[in-house]
Design a protein that fits this description.
Number of strands of chain A: 11
Distance between the termini of chain A: 53 Å
Radius of gyration of chain A: 22 Å
Strand content of chain A: 15-25%
Structural class of chain A: alpha/beta
Number of helices of chain B: 10
Helix content of chain B: 40-55%
Largest interface: A-B, 16 and 19 residues
Order of helices and strands of chain B: HHHHHEEEEEEEEHEEHHHH
Structural class of chain B: alpha+beta
Order of helices and strands of chain A: EEEHEHEHEHEHEEEHEHH
Oligomer: heterodimer
Shape of chain A: globular
């Protein structure tokens, strides 16, 4: 159902820089999440939703790259879900994204299907760069960006801590203005890795996923929110994109984490060490 | 009837909530303690379009509906009522121009607020004339194509930082309220001086000053409406701004409620969290119920304005109920916290001090009841 590794990347637009960013709708991290008694899902009543915080960082990075390299460039935001995801698209538009693509689909989606849908949107939009959050705070998968790069046959730079440039160092020194072509242009990304930072350079087009320390997303301003109303949202469906989204993974049951036993307060350090040694057996 | 916020309104609410939570709250105690002007917070408010949200879009503002403004106002005040008051003071001062200014006046006197952080002040109250507006002593005397203003104003929000003042003065004291006229004083002209910064009990982040006018000259083109229309201009302005003040109470009360719920879930007495004592549950239930009732009254009073209907009665219901409610809820929050509630390291004593002002400014709770009674027996 997914195209295999492509020999050559899809042709890119040669004029303005175009960046595709994602905006997944997730439960507000401040809401209290409760599992339904029957284990079929979480209680949705009374929950608040917002854009996945890592995606918000992606939108911000897209806007900054455009501002720095090509004011005429374009940030396109994509989200998959029912009508309600328009709220997250509008949020990204209010931050400054130029237009939105809404893949209208309700029902469960696994990571492969999500990456497949974004792949088709990417092939349609032909951006220079796709920026996604490194993971969404609901499913915590940390997979979609990597699948997407694989499906597209593009380079990937995950856990971006700092995206330095849309161009290679040599190119940057040569021409101050950006006229992106398929060859010689790259994105340099400082990645957060287990023991520090790693710097990589990917030829464009490429896929970047964002980590927490990449940037501080701007606030949606009131004029931005009012302006976002008139920005276009294109509606697509999995059928229109030609993607079979039948899940390959089935969730059998959700349950709450086991409740932790109440702790005790110890009167002094000696008792603490004694208990760690004799009861917990950790020292 | 529709009680759901629209998607746009939820977006506005989220934006204001984020500002209140991330920008205002961390510094609210500092500005309360030092009673200094929160210019950095207001700069951010300006950049986010929160500062001039009532100015119509064609003059560079955001042009929010009245209902939208109340939604934002609750969030701002939840962050800090003093900062919220500093923000709304611009809208209050600009409302007479928005409501009664000519096209030329709107272009000239509102347009520049979108360009940079700039404050304007609404100057109505005087040392001897607060609730009793008609006994105003500040005079305006016409001389050719200028008016000469003399007198004193007090309790003027943002007065020490403003670059434009909306001033009410009488052209003929004998005519009582029929002599009152509205003017816009631009900049800080000769004769206009800040005479005193007030050291307030609450809302200390807002700048409150006394002003004196000694032969301050204002061109006739800066008169809003005709001579003698000032009282009507002031009353219409307050009909428009009262829902916002009412919503400040709701913001304070919601903050008090949330703090109380959190504290009552953690604090233990007699072997259990105090929220498990029915007396505390009932206090919290009353706090929640009254906060929401005030919110609904306020939404209605703002909605009426958006429908182009007069809201004098409903906005007085809202302002009076909400202000009295916030005072009670904030006091109860201090009670829930016990001894800690009385200490400045905890957030609720500030709410109690901040709430008190809402029973006083923009029409005391007594004056609101006068208005309500007058409307009922009309």
């Amino acid at each position: 159902m997914f195209s295999s590794l492509q020999e050559t990347p899809p042709a890119r637009r040669s004029q303005a820089v175009k960046i595709l960013v994602t905006a997944k709708r997730v439960e507000d991290p401040e809401s209290k999440i409760k599992v339904k008694p029957d284990g079929t899902g979480i209680v949705q009543e009374g929950l608040k939703y917002k854009i996945n915080p890592f995606d918000e960082i992606g939108v911000e990075e897209g806007l900054r790259l455009i501002a720095k390299h090509d004011p005429k460039g374009e940030v396109v935001v994509v989200s998959i879900g029912g009508k309600e995801v328009q709220e997250q698209l509008r949020h990204a538009l209010a931050m400054g994204a130029h237009r939105a693509v809404w893949v209208n689909h309700t029902g469960p989606l696994d990571q492969l299907a999500i990456a497949g849908l974004i792949q088709k949107v990417t092939e349609k939009e032909k951006p220079d760069l796709v920026i996604l959050g490194k993971q969404s705070i609901d499913d915590d998968q940390n997979q979609v960006g990597q699948y997407l790069a694989e499906f597209l046959g593009w380079g990937q730079a995950t856990f971006a801590s700092k995206v330095e440039s849309l161009e290679s160092e040599a190119e940057k020194n040569k021409v101050p203005a950006v006229t992106l072509t398929a060859d010689g242009k790259a994105v340099r990304v400082v990645r957060e890795v287990d023991n520090g930072l790693a710097t990589v350079e990917c030829q464009l087009p490429a896929v970047v996923t964002t980590d927490l320390r990449l940037n501080q997303p701007r606030y949606a301003s009131l004029p931005g929110i009012m302006k976002a109303k008139s920005k276009p949202i294109e509606e697509l469906t999995p059928a229109k994109l030609g993607v079979d989204v039948t899940p390959t993974i089935q969730v059998l049951k959700l349950s709450s984490p086991p409740a932790r036993k109440a702790g005790i307060k110890v009167p002094d350090v000696a008792t603490l060490v004694d208990k760690l040694h004799n009861e917990a057996k950790v020292v | 009837m529709e009680f759901q916020l629209t998607e746009d309104q939820r977006a506005l609410q989220q934006a204001a909530r984020k500002y209140a939570r991330e920008v205002v709250r961390p510094k609210a105690a500092h500005y309360d303690e030092t009673a200094t002007f929160p210019r950095d917070l207001l700069q951010t408010a300006f950049e986010l379009g929160l500062l001039n949200m009532a100015i119509p879009a064609e003059y560079g503002g955001v042009g929010l509906s009245h209902l939208d403004q109340t939604i934002v106002a609750e969030e701002l005040s939840w962050g800090c009522a003093g900062v919220a008051t500093s923000i709304i003071a611009n809208d209050l001062a600009n409302l007479p121009i928005i409501l009664h200014g000519t096209e030329e006046q709107k272009q000239r006197l509102l347009g520049h607020f979108a360009e940079r952080l700039k404050f304007s002040s609404f100057c109505l109250t005087e040392p001897e004339a607060g609730s009793d507006v008609a006994s105003m002593q500040t005079t305006a005397r016409r001389e050719g194509d200028e008016y000469v203003i003399n007198g004193a104003k007090c309790f003027i929000t943002n007065g020490g930082h403003a670059e434009q003042y909306t001033v009410f003065a009488t052209v003929d004291k004998a005519k009582k309220h029929k002599g009152i006229t509205c003017f816009v004083v631009e900049g800080r002209p000769k004769g206009l001086t800040v005479s005193k910064h007030e050291n307030k009990m609450g809302q200390r982040a807002s700048d409150t000053v006394s002003l004196t006018f000694e032969d301050v000259r204002v061109p006739v083109k800066n008169r809003i409406g005709e001579e003698g229309q000032g009282f009507a201009v002031a009353m219409a302005t307050l009909d428009n701004s009262r829902p916002l003040t009412a919503m400040f109470s709701v913001g304070i009360a919601r903050a008090a409620l949330e703090h109380s719920m959190e504290y009552a879930s953690q604090r233990k007495t007699f072997g259990k969290p105090i929220i498990e004592h029915q007396a505390i549950q009932f206090m919290i239930a009353d706090m929640a119920m009254n906060t929401h009732a005030a919110r609904m009254l306020t939404y209605e009073s703002a909605w009426l304005l958006d429908q182009g209907q007069r809201n004098t009665l409903q906005s007085s219901y809202a302002k009076c109920f909400a202000a009295d409610m916030a005072m009670k809820v904030a006091t109860d929050a201090v009670q829930v916290y016990g001894g800690y509630g009385y200490i400045k390291e905890y957030p609720v004593e500030k709410l109690m001090r901040d709430a008190k002002l809402i029973q006083v400014y923009e029409g005391t709770s007594q004056v609101q009841r006068l208005v309500i009674a007058r409307e009922l027996f009309k």
